[in-house]
UniProtKB/TrEMBL annotation:
It holds the Pfam family ADK. It is found in: Cytoplasm. Belongs to the adenylate kinase family. InterPro entries: Adenyl_kin_sub, Adenylat/UMP-CMP_kin, Adenylat_kinase_CS, ADK_active_lid_dom_sf, P-loop_NTPase. Catalyzes the reversible transfer of the terminal phosphate group between ATP and AMP. Plays an important role in cellular energy homeostasis and in adenine nucleotide metabolism. AMP binds at residues 31, 36, 57-59, 86-89, 93, 157, 168. This is Adenylate kinase. Pathway: Purine metabolism; AMP biosynthesis via salvage pathway; AMP from ADP: step 1/1. Consists of three domains, a large central CORE domain and two small peripheral domains, NMPbind and LID, which undergo movements during catalysis. The LID domain closes over the site of phosphoryl transfer upon ATP binding. Assembling and dissambling the active center during each catalytic cycle provides an effective means to prevent ATP hydrolysis. Keywords: ATP-binding, Cytoplasm, Kinase, Nucleotide biosynthesis, Nucleotide-binding, Transferase. It comes from Streptococcus caprae.
Length: 214
């Protein structure tokens, strides 16, 4: 089984990816892991990626796509199948992935898309607060400090402020929608309701995967 998992920040993609990998024995392929492995193994593309990263520059698509192809060509992919996480990030990368999979004789069986209303994600992601003295982390809605706490005793990181979260969600929606449209045209997308208990999300994921197998 070869799968791609997608979802906006805060949708629980990482949690569900870990459960899928454990349950189905898939090779978990994330861009961060691939880059670290390619650099550690000093592959030609890994060293090239490192040169860009050391210079504080973005790694070009052709290098990223090449590193992904190198990873997909490894023996464990044929044995286990894979769950691709965090790639592709652009429509151009999706087209490159299509070509690389075709070159390797690998079929993509499905795209799991964990859906949550962005307004709910905004609440989820922008609710984190940190106690100024202790550094302890809380959430205004899901894990508030005990009693009637004084908001002046807490602060938010810039990344957690509602305006920053809203921008991040907008960017991810704009990037992700063309990719989803691309895979919907191939009839590969399985939409999963993410605004429910973690175990219920996972049950829906398993049902979607079973439907792909049949």
């Amino acid at each position: 089984m070869n799968l791609l998992i997608m979802g906006l920040p805060g949708a629980g993609k990482g949690t569900q990816a870990a459960k899928l990998v454990e349950n189905y024995g898939l090779a978990h392929i994330s861009t961060g892991d691939m880059f670290r492995a390619a650099i550690a193994n000093e592959t030609e593309l890994g060293l090239l990626a490192k040169s860009y990263m050391d210079g504080g520059n973005l790694v070009p698509d052709e290098v990223t796509n090449g590193i992904v192809k190198e990873r997909l060509a490894q023996d464990d992919i044929k044995e286990k199948g894979f769950l691709l996480d965090g790639y592709p990030r652009t429509l151009e990368q999706a087209h490159a992935l299509d070509q690389n999979l075709a070159d390797l004789g690998i079929n993509l069986d499905g795209v799991i898309n964990i859906e949550i209303d962005p307004s709910k994600l905004l609440e989820r992601l922008s609710g984190r607060i940190i106690h100024k003295q202790t550094g302890e982390t809380f959430h205004k809605v899901f894990n508030p400090p005990a009693g009637d706490y004084n908001e002046d005793d807490y602060y938010q990181r810039e990344d957690d402020k509602p305006e920053s979260v809203a921008r991040r969600l907008e960017v991810n929606i704009a990037q992700g929608q063309p990719i989803l449209d691309h895979y919907r045209a191939k009839n590969l997308v399985q939409d999963i309701e993410g605004d429910q208990d973690i175990e219920l999300v996972f049950e829906d994921l398993k049902k979607a995967i079973e439907s792909l197998k049949s």
